[in-house]
């Protein structure tokens, strides 16, 4: 959520998430495939096989972050992790504030409209870069707080997750993603 344009030149990203003990079937297994259609536009599909649920994914970096201006991101995906169904339409404003506070932190704020409860809710969080390969993300989805710790190695990202289910319950999970491009046709 740093609001920066993608550094990876690959056009596709495949991701899979597994949260085995989540009470909602839709949250237990999630797969995504997205395509970078433009430098600032990624489109794709999300499939949650345990709930036979399919959603469109769109992430549009409407305003890239500059030295002084925050980034504006607009998009859609499935509704928050704990919902059994529904779509989410969101916007976030994010800014890497390391320049001012000397810590590698990029907070974001925004709002998401979720169709499951037919409501607009505030969302917020922040990305903390611990090393070049290790980062943490704190996410408040308008109802629950989730934390992740991600390791990046080239085209691969492995993430451990702590997902809040309700006020007193947390469960663990992990995700993996790989970015790639299709082989070019040879002449």
Helix content: under 10%
Arithmetic mean of pLDDT: 93
Q: Determine Rg (CA atoms, Å).
A: 16 Å
Bulk shape: globular
Write down how many β-strands occur, each being a DSSP E stretch of 2 or more residues.
12
What kind of oligomer do you see? single chain
Strand content: over 45%
What does this 3D model show about the protein?
By secondary structure, this protein is mostly beta strands. The chain has a domain at 12-128. It is 4% helix and 58% strand. The protein is built from 2 helices and 12 strands; from the N terminus they run βαβββββαββββββ. A hairpin with a 4-residue loop joins strand 3 and strand 4 (53-63). The radius of gyration is 16 Å and the shape is globular.
Element layout with pairings:
Elements: E1 12-18, H1 25-28, E2 29-38, E3 41-48, E4 53-63, E5 71-78, E6 87-94, H2 98-101, E7 105-114, E8 119-129, E9 134-140, E10 145-153, E11 156-164, E12 170-180
């Amino acid at each position: 959520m740093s609001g920066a344009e993608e550094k990876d030149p690959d056009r596709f990203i495949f991701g899979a998430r597994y949260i085995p003990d989540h009470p909602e079937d839709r949250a237990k297994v999630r797969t995504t495939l997205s395509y970078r259609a433009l430098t600032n536009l990624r489109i794709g599909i999300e499939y949650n096989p345990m709930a036979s649920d399919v959603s469109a994914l769109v992430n549009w970096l409407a305003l890239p972050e500059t030295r002084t201006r925050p980034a504006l991101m607009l998009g859609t995906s499935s509704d928050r992790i704990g919902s059994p169904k529904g779509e989410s339409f969101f916007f976030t404003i994010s800014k890497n504030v390391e320049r001012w506070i000397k810590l590698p932190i990029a907070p974001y704020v925004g709002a998401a409209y979720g169709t499951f409860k037919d409501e607009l809710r505030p969302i917020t969080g922040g990305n903390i870069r611990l090393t070049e390969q290790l980062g943490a993300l704190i996410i408040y989805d308008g109802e629950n707080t989730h934390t992740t710790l991600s390791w990046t190695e080239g085209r691969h990202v492995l993430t451990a997750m702590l997902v809040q289910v309700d006020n007193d319950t947390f469960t663990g999970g992990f995700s993996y993603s790989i970015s790639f491009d299709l082989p070019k046709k040879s002449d």
